[in-house]
Design a protein that fits this description.
The complex is a heterodimer. Chain A has helices at about 40-45, 70-75, 90-100, 105-120, 135-145, 165-180, 190-200, 215-225, 230-235, 245; strands spanning about 1-10, 15-25, 30-35, 55-60, 65, 75-80, 155, 185-190, 200-205, 210-215. Chain A is an alpha/beta fold. Chain A has one domain (about 1-85, about 155-245): Rossmann fold, CATH 3.40.50. A six-stranded mixed β-sheet of chain A has the order 6-7-8-3-9-10, sandwiched between helices. Chain B has two domains: about 1-50 and about 185-390, no CATH class; about 55-180, 3-Layer(aba) Sandwich (abc type-2 transporter like fold). Chain B is about 65% helix and about 5% strand. In chain B, helix 8 runs antiparallel to helix 13. Classes of the chains: A alpha/beta, B mainly alpha.
C-alpha cells in the first residue's frame, strides 16, 4: 500500500510534480494516467527512492520512503522507465543478480527464479543472453527481476509501452494475477484503453497535479461524459488532447 | 548491516567480472596490453644483441693500402678485424651507407712515416648514424692504439722510456653503448607494468559506469536496496581485480625475458627471481585499486561508453609520465615520491629491478597512499551516483 501526500519536485524553473496526493491500496490496481510530461515518471521515481522530493510525504506500508528509501525499496518491485538490461547476461542471471542484492540466496533464490520463469512463461529463453531479445522478452526479464523478492507493492512505469498485442496481454495477465493474490499494483500509462480495462482506481495527472481520482465510473460521473476518452480529455485540459500526446 | 553491505559489494563485483569476462573485445585488449610490453622489450633487446655481435666482427675498407703495408698487416692481426679493399670514393660510399666507416691512407704516408713526421690517416664516418657508432668507435680506438704503439717504439729506439711521456695510465671500465641501451630498454619494464594496471581495469571501469548509464540499466540497479557505496565499491574492486591480473601476468612475462634473450652474453645483469617478483607485486597491487577507481570515477562523468573511452585515452598517459621522464633524465629515488600515486610505484619497481630495493616502509607508505586515494575516489563516485543528473542524464 502506498500513500502519497503533497509530493513536489522541481527541476530548475520547471515544477514537474506539484502537490500530488493519492493512495494505492493492497489487492487493487491503481493507474497513474496522464499525457507525456505530466509528471508520472518523476512521481514514480520519488516513490522508488532514486529521486528526492522537494516536499511531501511518501509512505510504503508503514515506511517513510523519503527518510529511509532503502527500506522502502526492499518492499517495492519496480519496473523503471526505459529499463536497460545487461546484454551479456542471461535472463536467469538477471533475476538472480537482483535477487542476491535483495539478500536472497542459495536454494531459495533458485526456487524463486524457477517460479518466476514459469509464471512469466520464460523457460525457453531463461539461459539465453538478453542481447538478442525482442522488446517483449526484455520486458518480461525486467518484470521478473523486479518481482524476485516477492514484493507486496509493485510499481510499473509504462509497462506496455511499445509492446505488441500478445505481449501486452501477457503483461495484463501478470498485473491481474498480482492483484488477485493481494498485491498493491501501481502502474503508469498514457493509454486510456489500457487503464480503463485494467484499473480498479485511476489517478489522472496533468501538469504535475492530480486533476481527478476515482474508479472509471466515478470519473465518468464527475466529468459528465459517458465516454471515458472524453472524460480524460476534459480532465487533462483540451490543449493536451492532441493525438500525438495521447497515444 | 555491515556484513550485508559487504556481501552486496561481492555480489556486484562478481556480476561485473562475469559480465566483462564475456566481452571478447575487452578481453582481447587486455591480453594485448599484457603481452605488448614484454614482447616489445624482447624485440628491442634482440636488435641490440645483434648489433653488438656485428660490431665485434668488423670489416674495415682501407683506401691506399699500398702506402702503409705495415699498418694494414697490424690491423689484420687484431682479433675480429678483416681488412677489405676500399671504395673509389670513400665519402660517397659512407654517405650512401655502403660502408659504416672507411679508412683512407694518404699517398705521402710512407714518406712522412719514414722521416718521423706525423703521417695522415683519415677516418671517414657519419657519427650521426646510431647503428654505425660502435664500428666507428672501434676503428678509432684501433688507429689510436697503433699510434701509441709506434710512438712507444720510436722512443725506445732513441733510448727514452715511453713511461716518461705517459704521465697517466688511463684505465677504462667499459660500459659499452650496447649495454647502456639495453639498460635503457629494461627501464621500460616498470612503465609497461604500470600500463598493464591501467589498461587491464579500463574496460570494466568504463562498461560498469558509463556503459551502465548509456544502456539505462543504472536506474534499475539503484532501485535495489543496496547503498550506493556498496555498488560503487563492487564495481571498482571488480576493475581492480582485472587490473591486478594484468599486472601479475605482465610481471611474470617480463621475468621470463632472460630465457629468450642472450642477456648474459651481452654482459647485462637482469634477474627477476622470486624476491624481485614479490617486490614488484607488493609495489604494484595496491595501485591497481587506485587506477581502477580513478578510471571508474572519471567514466561516471561520461554519458556514453564512447565518451568514457576518450577520457581513458588521456588517463592512460598518466602511468607513462614517470617512464618518459626517467628516459630523458634520471629519476632519483626521493622519499617524497612515495607519496605520489603511480610515481611512487614506478620508483619502487625501478629499485627492485635495479637490485637495490627500498626498505619495507616505502612499500607500506606507497601502498597506503594508493589505497587511501582509491577510497577517496570511491567516496567521490558514490556522491556522483547520488546526483540526479548523473543517474538520469542520458
Amino acid at each position: 500500500m502506498i500513500r502519497v501526500t503533497a509530493l513536489a519536485k522541481r527541476f530548475g524553473i520547471v515544477q514537474a510534480v506539484d502537490g500530488v496526493t493519492f493512495e494505492a491500496r493492497d489487492g487493487s490496481i491503481t493507474g497513474l494516467l496522464g499525457p507525456n510530461g505530466a509528471g508520472k515518471t518523476t512521481t514514480l521515481r520519488m516513490l522508488y527512492g532514486v529521486m528526492k522530493p522537494n516536499a511531501g510525504e511518501i509512505r510504503v506500508d508503514d515506511v517513510d520512503a523519503v527518510a529511509s528509501p532503502q527500506e522502502a525499496q526492499g518492499r517495492l518491485g519496480v519496473l523503471p522507465d526505459g529499463f536497460g538490461l545487461y546484454p551479456r547476461l542471461t535472463a536467469r542471471e538477471h533475476i538472480q543478480y537482483f535477487g542476491a542484492l535483495h539478500g536472497i540466496s542459495g536454494d531459495q533464490l533458485r526456487a524463486r527464479t524457477e517460479e518466476l520463469l514459469r509464471l512469466l512463461d520464460m523457460q525457453k529463453i531463461a539461459d539465453r543472453r538478453t542481447g538478442g531479445f525482442s522488446h517483449g522478452e526484455r520486458t518480461k526479464v525486467a518484470i521478473a527481476r523486479a518481482l524476485v523478492h516477492s514484493p507486496r507493492t509493485v510499481l510499473l512505469d509504462e509497462p506496455t509501452n511499445g509492446l505488441d498485442v500478445m505481449s501486452t496481454r501477457a503483461v495484463r495477465t501478470i498485473v491481474r494475477r498480482l492483484r488477485d493474490s493481494g498485491h498493491c499494483v501501481l502502474f503508469s500509462s498514457h493509454v486510456m484503453q489500457e487503464v480503463s480495462a485494467l484499473c480498479d482506481s485511476i489517478v489522472v495527472i496533468a501538469r504535475g497535479q492530480v486533476v481527478a481520482r476515482g474508479t472509471p465510473d466515478e470519473l465518468r460521473r464527475q466529468t459528465g461524459h459517458d465516454n471515458l476518452e472524453d472524460a480524460f480529455v476534459a480532465l487533462a485540459g483540451a490543449e493536451l488532447a492532441t493525438e500525438d500526446t495521447w497515444s | 548491516m555491515m556484513r550485508r553491505h559487504l556481501h552486496q559489494v561481492l555480489i556486484v563485483m562478481r556480476k561485473e567480472l562475469k559480465d566483462s569476462l564475456r566481452d571478447r573485445r575487452a578481453l582481447f585488449s587486455i591480453a594485448f596490453s599484457i603481452v605488448v610490453g614484454p614482447v616489445l622489450i624482447g624485440i628491442m633487446m634482440n636488435r641490440i644483441a645483434d648489433r653488438q655481435r656485428e660490431s665485434e666482427q668488423v670489416t674495415i675498407p682501407v683506401v691506399g693500402q699500398q702506402h702503409a703495408p705495415a699498418f694494414v698487416d697490424w690491423l689484420q692481426q687484431q682479433a675480429g678485424v678483416t681488412v677489405a679493399r676500399g671504395p673509389l670514393s670513400a665519402e660517397k660510399a659512407v654517405r650512401d651507407r655502403e660502408y659504416d666507416v672507411v679508412v683512407v691512407i694518404a699517398s705521402d704516408y710512407a714518406e712522412k712515416f719514414r722521416s718521423s713526421r706525423p703521417a695522415t690517416i683519415t677516418i671517414v664516418a657519419d657519427t650521426s648514424r646510431n647503428s654505425a657508432r660502435p664500428t666507428i668507435e672501434r676503428v678509432r680506438r684501433l688507429v689510436q692504439r697503433f699510434n701509441a704503439e709506434i710512438g712507444a717504439l720510436r722512443l725506445i729506439s732513441r733510448g727514452v722510456s715511453p713511461a716518461g711521456v705517459t704521465p697517466l695510465t688511463v684505465e677504462e671500465i667499459e660500459i659499452s653503448t650496447a649495454q647502456q641501451r639495453a639498460a635503457q630498454v629494461l627501464s621500460f619494464i616498470p612503465m609497461f607494468i604500470i600500463l598493464a594496471a591501467f589498461v587491464g581495469g579500463m574496460s570494466i571501469a568504463t562498461d560498469s559506469t558509463a556503459g551502465e548509464r548509456e544502456r539505462g540499466s543504472l536506474e534499475a540497479l539503484l532501485v535495489n536496496p543496496a547503498p550506493r557505496m556498496a555498488i560503487v565499491t563492487g564495481k571498482c574492486v571488480a576493475a581492480a581485480i582485472v587490473a591486478m591480473t594484468a599486472v601479475v601476468l605482465t610481471t611474470a612475462l617480463s621475468a621470463n625475458i632472460p630465457r629468450f634473450l642472450p642477456l648474459q652474453d651481452m654482459g647485462i645483469r637482469f634477474h627477476m627471481g622470486r624476491a624481485e617478483l614479490a617486490g614488484v607485486l607488493a609495489a604494484m597491487l595496491p595501485i591497481c585499486l587506485f587506477s581502477a577507481s580513478l578510471q571508474a570515477a572519471v567514466s561516471t562523468l561520461a554519458r556514453s561508453f564512447k565518451e568514457a573511452q576518450s577520457y581513458m585515452g588521456v588517463l592512460v598517459l598518466l602511468p607513462m609520465l614517470p617512464g618518459m621522464i626517467s628516459a630523458v633524465s634520471t629519476l632519483d629515488q626521493q622519499p617524497w615520491m612515495y607519496l605520489v600515486p603511480v610515481l611512487g610505484q614506478h620508483v619502487l619497481v625501478m629499485g627492485v629491478l635495479g637490485g637495490r630495493p627500498e626498505g619495507a616502509w616505502a612499500f607500506v607508505v606507497a601502498g597506503l597512499i594508493a589505497v587511501l586515494t582509491a577510497g577517496l575516489l570511491i567516496r567521490t563516485m558514490t556522491t556522483l551516483f547520488k546526483l540526479e543528473r548523473i543517474v538520469f542524464g542520458r
